[in-house]
Write a structure and sequence with these properties.
By secondary structure, the chain is mainly β. Helices cover 4% and strands 40% of the residues. Strands 5, 11, 12, 14, 15, 17, 22 and 23 form an eight-stranded antiparallel sheet that branches. It is globular.
């Protein structure tokens, strides 16, 4: 079942799972189980008024993740764009589309971006991202050059108590530590072993399989599976990433939480981000007319 009301798209299945997606920024706001328990985290101080990005749910970071690109705005401009339109609705899914004309001189590459959100009969949330480098029928540089981009589906998961959380699946994977100037930490390091325990600020880009790039097909031929063991809620959140070469693990911890205006001081205890990304493996370069 699908509903569209007040710019919110609501997907419901027969088991009672519900997903809510905002037309603003194509942002997934909520994913609840049949008991009404939230699987995604949303800050109590989140701001829902454009042009502010929403703190929680699933912001779409594109065409830049963090500062990995030419834009001055961290995480790009897609996550706070009001130009998304609903392209399709079905009982179990919705697709939203953003058309960008390359008007920002620091990123002069026209593209079409689509986010499709699907609620399965079992209650699983699936989000796919598709980007097409539109190019221009002219002699401009951007019409001929490949479009470089990084990005992520910046998923915030709701947990009961960060001290009781264990993350599985990232063990023995090398990662870049953003808290140490993107220093590469070898997979043999003690804190790179499963299970990952979060007991301090964490901001890591795990390089899952940067060699999986198939440039001829404009995709990464890889997949990976992870688990967030949320012992406080007596549940396990299972995550599968496909076609993304990296995964980001983030928790702001105490001091950074206090510095975030749209985040309560102690909310770091009740969230963790584990997200598919194109980041540490370098920007993907998409040819004009091609689709990723």
């Amino acid at each position: 079942m699908v509903e569209l009301s007040d710019n919110i798209i609501t997907l419901r299945n027969d088991k009672g799972y519900i997903i809510k997606v905002s037309k603003y920024a194509a942002h997934i706001l909520s994913w609840t189980d049949p008991n009404g328990k939230e699987i995604l985290f949303m800050s109590k101080k989140a701001i829902f008024t454009p042009p502010k990005a929403i703190r929680g749910g699933v912001p779409i970071c594109f065409p830049q993740f963090g500062s990995l690109g030419p834009l001055k705005t961290a995480h790009g401009f897609v996550r706070n764009s009001s130009s998304w339109v609903v392209e399709s609705l079905s009982p179990s899914s919705t697709t939203l589309k953003l058309s960008y004309n390359g008007e920002d001189t620091s990123y002069p590459f026209p593209f079409e971006l689509r986010s499709t959100v699907t609620l399965s009969s079992a209650g699983e949330l699936e989000q796919t991202l598709q980007v097409r480098h539109v190019g221009l029928p002219s002699s401009t540089t951007s019409s001929k050059e490949a479009m470089p981009f990084t990005g992520a589906l910046h998923t915030y998961y709701s947990i009961n108590d960060i001290s009781a959380v264990r993350v599985l699946g990232l063990g023995n994977v090398p990662y870049e530590d953003n808290l140490k100037g993107r220093a590469l930490v070898d997979s043999a390091a003690s804190d790179a072993k499963d299970p990952i325990v979060i007991d301090k600020e964490v901001d890591r880009i795990y390089k899952l399989d940067p060699n999986a790039l198939c440039k001829a097909a404009n995709k990464y031929n890889n997949s990976a599976s992870f688990e967030i063991q949320d012992r406080g809620n007596n549940r396990v959140i299972k995550i599968q990433i496909q076609g993304f070469p990296d995964a980001v693990l983030w928790n702001p911890w105490i001091e950074k939480s206090k510095a975030l205006a749209d985040f309560e001081d102690l909310e770091y205890q009740n969230m963790v981000c584990l997200e598919p990304a194109v980041a540490g493996s370098g920007p993907f370069k998409l040819d004009p007319g091609a689709t990723w």
